[in-house]
Amino acid sequence: MLLPPVTDPPRFDVLPGADARGSLEHCGVVELPRIQDRRGNLTFVEAGRHVPFDIQRVYYLYDVPGGAERGGHGHFKLRQLIVAMSGSFDVVLDDGKRRARYHLNRSYTGLYVCPMIWRELDNFSSGSVCLVLASEPYDEADYLRDYDTFRHAGSHPDTR
Ligand code: TYD
Question: Which of 34, 127, 128, 153 is least enclosed, having the fewest CB within 10 Å?
Answer without folding.
Answer: 127
